[in-house]
Amino acid sequence: MNAVGKFNGIALGGIVFLTLASTGCLATRKYVQTQAVAPMQANIKTVDQKVDTKTQELDQRISDVDHRAEQGYSEASSKAEAAGQSAQKANDAAQGAQQTANQGVTMATLNKRDIDNIDTYKPVKTENVLFDFNRYNLNPDNQQQLDSFAQSLDSMKHYAVEVKGFTDSRGSKEYNLELSQRRADTVVRYLTENDHVPLIKIHVLGLGEADPAADNKTSDGRKQNRRVEVCIVAPDLGGANQAAMPSSSQSTTNALPAGQSR
Fold first, then answer.
1. What's the pLDDT at 47?
2. Helix (H, G, I), strand (E, B), or coil: what is residue 48?
3. pLDDT at 256
């Protein structure tokens, strides 16, 4: 074999060697990539996914705990506020009950006082309405007198009105009893119809010539005896139910026309 042939043989052998060497390296790299790196990367990816999942779960748990804590705080605050309101309402109710009880005690005391005094009637105001001889009608002066008398009742609650009719001594007792009753009835009718005094408040009686106010032997005395006494009586309630007692000038008498028969 000549030199050229040897050289070619050597070159070809080198090429074959390099080719084999190159092929072996490529095979090694592919092996390493496939058998070592790829599984490791897959494991790392799996671990990362697990870490991400755990992290998300932990975040969700923390969020749930925070939410429950806030909800519990809100509920506790609401219950505390409701309890405070209930306590305030209970306190207000207790104070109201105490005030009602105090008012009840006060009213009971006043009612007891009124009951104790209800039968202790005292005269408050008296008027004498005078009549002409053998007459029982009211003249304008009589009516004005009764109107003024009735005004005293406007501010009163507990009272009674006594109406008693009288005559002078002339005539029979039977006739005088009838005439005194007619005079009393005339006054009652005027008080109820014109001054609106409740009839249930009025007690009326004709007494004839009994209980004279003056001496029947004189003309002026007989004039004073031809009368109807109208008297307001009321229980003694410490002055709260009483009007001022009239002076002697308030117990008016009806002046009769000059020359009128007595």
1. 62
2. helix
3. 36
Question: What letter represents residue 102's amino acid?
Answer: N
Instruction: Give Cβ neighbours of residue 217 (< 8 Å, ≥ 6 apart).
Output: none
Q: Which residue, 136, 125, 124, is CA-closest to 175?
A: 136
Q: What are the E-state strand segments in 152-221? A: 160-165, 202-206
Q: What is the pLDDT of residue 253?
A: 38
Q: Which residue has the tokens 């609106």?
A: 196
Neighbour order of strands in the sheet with 202-206: 121-130, 227-235, 160-165, 202-206
**What is the Cα gyration radius of the chain?**
62
- H or E segment to which residue 185 belongs: helix 173-193
Q: How far apart are CA 153 and CA 158, in angstroms?
A: 9
Q: What is the pLDDT of residue 12?
A: 55
The predicted structure's pLDDT at residue 252: 37
Is residue 229 within 8 Å of 149, Cβ to Cβ?
A: no
C-alpha–C-alpha distance, residues 253 and 226, integer Å: 10
* Structure confidence at residue 5 (pLDDT): 56
Closest residue by Cα to residue 152 from 229, 252, 236, 245: 245
For the chain, list residues with pLDDT below 50: 4, 242-262
Q: Among 254, 246, 40, which residue's Cα sits nearest to residue 149? A: 246
Question: What does the longest C-alpha to C-alpha distance in the chain come to?
Answer: 206
72 burial via Cβ count (<10 Å: 0-12, 13-18, 19+): exposed
Eight-state DSSP code of residue 71 = H
Contacts of 199 by beta carbon, 8 Å cutoff, 6+ apart:
188, 192
